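Task: sequence design from structure.
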């Protein structure tokens, strides 16, 4: 009888230990340990250590038991094998699921966008704000003539490589991998149909981008893009200088100029299309897809001149003859004077 009682006691103790161990293992490994209100993302860069990650999980990812996460991470030796990346933390996620993603580098892609970009510094800053790369990693590539040439561009035309759109990439993408991705997207955009249209008007894709950038700087009215593009193509085909004010602003380095003066027209720059015929060496900005297609599908007309409307609507008066243009320009100058814009 005593022997049976002893065996029963031992069995009960073993069952208790096993149950306790099972409960501990369940809470450590499989029990939900993250309850954010919605999916959150943690970012692991080259400077983040395990303690930094734990603080981020506790502060912004709804971690219920950071101690158990630390414990399982130690068992799996994760702190010594951290991978950079952007990782999703979903409501109800357990420690093992998150640690498996972290250990294997199974990150979530991020969507990047860039638009309204004029200068390389602006582009580098915009992309650095969305990815792990720094401005100091991307800018040297954009300024490296040999590297740009390897992609089929010059340092003046390299911005034409970037087609504004929304792209899914990994957050820890290197600067060179990003450039390679942009080159693939460029080739996809410039398909046979678009290349045939460019060839029909005697332009390369880069030249189309340069002209599109001028068009977009010239007017804020998207419906005017094809008209303005047709006007500049008329001037190019007749060997007439573009005389585009945005190129002067680019040469001066001041896009806020409201009035172009004779002193501005005299600046010695290959971007000054009042002094030099043809297109400038590179785009004034990264043109949009609408701008690029507006050049390829430009409106056919006989306009050679344009002038901002005197109502300051941002729209333009177009003219075929110089006499008509002068009348439009006089009205605009009179309004500038009336508003005391110098």
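Answer:
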């Amino acid at each position: 009888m005593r022997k049976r009682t002893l065996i029963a006691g031992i069995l009960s103790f073993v069952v208790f230990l096993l149950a306790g161990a099972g409960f501990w293992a369940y809470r450590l490994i499989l029990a939900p340990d993250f309850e954010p209100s919605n999916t959150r993302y943690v970012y692991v860069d080259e400077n983040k250590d395990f303690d930094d990650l734990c603080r981020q999980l506790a502060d912004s990812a709804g971690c219920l038991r950071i101690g158990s996460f630390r414990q399982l991470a130690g068992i799996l030796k994760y702190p010594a094998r951290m991978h950079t990346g952007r990782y999703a933390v979903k409501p109800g996620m357990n420690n093992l699921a998150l640690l498996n993603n972290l250990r294997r580098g199974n990150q979530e892609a991020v969507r990047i966008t860039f638009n309204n970009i004029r200068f390389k510094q602006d582009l580098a800053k915009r992309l650095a704000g969305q990815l792990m790369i720094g401005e100091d990693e991307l800018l040297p590539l954009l300024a490296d003539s040999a590297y740009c040439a390897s992609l089929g561009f010059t340092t003046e035309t390299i911005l034409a490589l970037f087609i504004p759109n929304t792209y899914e990439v990994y957050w820890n993408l290197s600067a060179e991998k990003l450039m390679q991705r942009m080159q693939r997207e460029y080739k996809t955009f410039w398909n046979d149909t678009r290349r045939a249209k460019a060839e029909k008007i005697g332009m390369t894709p880069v030249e189309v981008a340069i002209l599109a950038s001028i068009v977009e700087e010239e007017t804020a009215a998207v419906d005017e893009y094809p008209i303005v593009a047709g006007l500049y193509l008329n001037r190019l085909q007749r060997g007439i200088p573009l005389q585009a004010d945005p190129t002067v602003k680019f040469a001066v380095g001041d896009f806020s100029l409201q009035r172009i003066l004779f002193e501005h027209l005299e600046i010695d720059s290959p971007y000054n299309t009042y002094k030099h015929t043809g297109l400038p060496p590179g785009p004034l900005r990264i043109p949009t897809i609408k701008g690029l297609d507006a050049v390829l599908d430009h409106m056919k007309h006989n306009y050679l001149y344009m002038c901002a409307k005197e109502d300051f609507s941002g729209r333009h008066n177009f003219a075929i003859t110089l006499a008509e243009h002068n009348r439009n320009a006089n009205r605009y100058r009179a309004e500038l004077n009336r508003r005391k814009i110098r």
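The chain has three domains: 27-104, 110-189, 201-338.
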